[in-house]
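User: I'm curious what two different proteins look like when written out as structure tokens. Can you demonstrate?

Assistant: Sure. I'll show them one after the other, since each token string lines up with its own sequence. Here's the first protein:
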Amino acid sequence: MRTYNIFISHSWNYSNQYQRLTELLKQAPYFQHKDYSIPKDDPVHNASLDRELEEAIENKMNFCSVIIVLAGVYADPSYSKWIAKEVRIAQKQSKPILAIEYWGSERTSQFVKENADKIVRWNGSSIVSAIKELYDK
């Protein structure tokens, strides 16, 4: 079985959504993945400079075939800044971007929509199918 290398862009302030997505992917049948994301408890989280964190993200994305962006609209302006940086890194590395819209979300970041290669709703089989599709492009 193929292992899909992914990076999930997410806000540390909303890490529960990241956790829910990783659990959803772990439960998906016939789907094996390696997550190169930077969770809240990762030591990189304590990087003293934005540039250090950006370099760590870029290094982790090098190993990935698909970049996933949790596409809700957040009030935290620093998250928007990091989404933009992560999207630009993905584009620089020619990595496809999968945007996931939450259940019940009424709005999605226009920036994310404009830069995503594919957008799906919060549904395990849709997410897994999109990852496989983008991986094989």
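Here's a second, unrelated protein for contrast:
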Amino acid sequence: MRKLMGFIVLWWALSLAMPVVAQTSARDILQRAAETFLRSGGVSASFAIHSPEGNSTGFIRLKGEKFVLEAGGMTTWFDGHTQWTYLPESDEVNISEPTDEELQTLNPYAWLSLYDRGYDVKLLPAESSAQYKVEMVARSAEAQVSRVMLWLERSGLQPVKFALTLSGSVEPTVITVRDYRTEQAYPDALFTFAPREYPTAEVIDLR
């Protein structure tokens, strides 16, 4: 369930007869999407998750590489360096410093800036002419996420849906964005764990 917490949304289509151009165009779309996201200020998004383990919902707030994610019954804060994950059933918070790959499985928006690290990308025909669709396939068999499909609105390059297939899995986890809002005002403190709000929580430092 913990791996479910993170996954979310983006891309689309060029001619299969021009693979080199298609790859370049796919990367250009992802780069423009990343730039658009960074210019959006604070972002909030609610989403639905459909996975082999079951269905659930989540909510994420982001500012640059910082985020707060509520999904799978857990809350995760990331301030750009340190990550805190609160587990209510055990009343404990785990502190860690995630790798880029770990961030990709936790925060789907991380794919906007990390897509070119170990993945081949290409444009595919989308189901709607109003969307882009991009396929990302891991070059290494040891990658935690072996394949990603990303859908993005053509007009504003905003995320619509994404599907991530974990290594060793056949069925992907599909995340569909329900509500996406930009220009939200978030203080930096929002993205760090506040011990005073969880006075009984056991702190487990995994760094």
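A detail about the second structure: Residues 3-24 have pLDDT under 50 and may be disordered.
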